[in-house]
Amino acid sequence: MWSTSAWVLLCALSTFLGFVISRRRPAPPRHLAGLPDEATFATLHIAALAAPSLRAGLTRDSARKAIRHLRTLLGVNAIAVTDADGVLAWDGAAGCHRDHAPEHARTVFSSGRPYVVAGEAIACRTPGCVIRGAAVVPLTVDGRVVGALAAYDAEVSAGLVRTVTEVARWVSGQLELAELDSSRRRAMEAETRALRAQISPHFVYNSLTTIASFVRTDPERARELLMDFADFTRHALRRGGDFTTLADELRCVDRYLLLERARFGERLRFTVRVAPEVLPVPVPFLCLQPLVENAIKHGIAATGGSGEVRVVVRDAGPEAHISVEDDGLGMDPGRARRLLDDDPGQGRDESGIGLANVDVRLRQIYGEDYGLVVETALGAGTKIRLRVPKLPTR
């Protein structure tokens, strides 16, 4: 479904296209020449060329890359894009007008409304100067004026002012989307930091206590376990993006299992089977360790006896299929649903990150069809399945 932002952007684009096409028709690319609606196609094509740069936000680099396309859309003699600090980019006729652009932009910043400059206010003594006026329109993000779009031409008509206004509205829409992208990235980074903070304190305490128990009786074993603990925490607390490779995630799981094996002894058995072809596949950070932690807590620790945890990763063509299974007590399917329905924002399962957090992240990244699948019943153990596309994430 279309988002509200997408509909607003589409409507704004449609409106300014009408003004642009009715005022000046940009020359269509050669491959569009002769088509009945060639001016419409040309305008859309030029807008599409400018959009990627603007989606990076309002910077000197993005303005420089987009400004020539914006000038082509407006069909004016010169154009300037400014922010609060001054001119970010200028394209078109040379002369003294560029020096006046910051002053024109300040007027827009203070009023928040379009500003028309004409007559002596923009007089230039440069020989052959073809600029006699300007239309300066604010660029806004979330209601804040963040910059200005100034179009300079031989005359300033009502049609030019309307056209510049609509182009500025479209540019503002692109900047809004850039801000949304940035906010989304910040939110995901905050979530990753929160995940690092949610490593079970009980696990840390139990691991260090177990290591300490070997210091006198088996110093070499204590050293090995301490290195395993260091490898696990280095992965869990590392700085980086939201993704890691499946190989790194499985290495984290392996260290976690070795530490838990030292704690439970022969009561815990585990096997890990992995198709080598899927090891480079990118996966969300800490998407497997919580599932293994859940299997040990609910499948083995709760029984007071012994049990086995099996991790299987298969190559399934365009996807990697992963399962984490235990042969413990299992649980009522209703309880499994409640574990998945827990609000990740309210914390976690008392012993770790929790299944709900992993489930929500998978659905957010890959789509609703990629959540966790839990197969369980009382006395029948628990199996958790997930799928990860091999292609880059959307």
Task: Characterize the structure shown.
The protein is built from 11 helices and 12 strands. It is α+β, with helices and mostly antiparallel strands and 394 residues long. The strands form 3 sheets. A 5-stranded antiparallel beta sheet has the order 2-1-5-4-3, with helices on both faces. The chain is elongated. The N terminus is likely disordered. It comes from Streptosporangium canum.
Concise description?
With 394 residues, the protein is an alpha+beta fold. It contains eleven helices and twelve strands.
CATH superfamily of the largest domain: GAF domain
Indicate the percent of residues in helices: 40-55%
CATH class of the largest domain: Alpha Beta
Overall form: elongated
Instruction: Please report the total strand number as a whole number.
Output: 12
N- to C-terminal separation? 16 Å
Uncertain spans, ≥5 residues at pLDDT below 50?
A: 1-25, 28-33, 344-352
Number of domains: 2
**Largest sheet: spatial strand order:** 2-1-5-4-3
Sequence-ordered SSE layout with sheet pairings:
Layout: H1 4-23, H2 38-54, H3 60-74, E1 78-83, E2 86-92, H4 97-111, E3 115-118, E4 133-141, E5 144-153, H5 158-197, H6 201-214, H7 219-236, E6 243-245, H8 246-264, E7 268-274, E8 282-284, H9 289-301, E9 307-316, E10 319-326, H10 333-341, H11 355-366, E11 373-376, E12 382-389
Parallel strand pairs: 7-9
Antiparallel strand pairs: 1-2, 1-5, 3-4, 4-5, 6-8, 9-10, 10-12, 11-12
InterPro entries: Bact_2-comp_sensor_kinase, GAF, HATPase_C_sf, HATPase_dom, Sig_transdc_His_kin_internal
Domain Histidine kinase/HSP90-like ATPase: 283-392
Keywords: Kinase, Transferase
